[in-house]
Specification:
Elements lengths: L4 H19 L4 H21 L2 H22 L11
Helix pairs in contact: 1-2, 2-3
Length: 83
């Protein structure tokens, strides 16, 4: 059982990441939710004193935000977008 509020925060953050990752193909908002989960997981890692994990999660946050931006922004015609 989770007795510590920081551990509970970490469990929720990772759960959000996993759920959002599985739903990413349904809508761009899930990529954004995944990014938020990564950020929360990074914060948890900092609170737990695991800074290398925090750095990795912050990198994943940036990657996910870039993926989200590409999905919501229309591509130019030269790249095969709508005419």
């Amino acid at each position: 059982m989770v007795n510590d509020p920081i551990t509970l925060f970490g469990v929720v953050a990772v759960a959000v990441m996993l759920i959002a990752y599985t739903l990413e193909e349904r809508a761009p908002v899930w990529v954004l939710v995944f990014a938020a989960g990564c950020l929360a997981s990074g914060v948890y890692a900092l609170l737990a004193g695991a800074w290398p994990y925090a750095v990795a999660e912050l990198i994943w946050t940036v990657v996910a935000l870039r993926r989200w931006r590409r999905r919501v922004r229309p591509r130019p015609v030269a790249e095969g977008g709508l005419r």
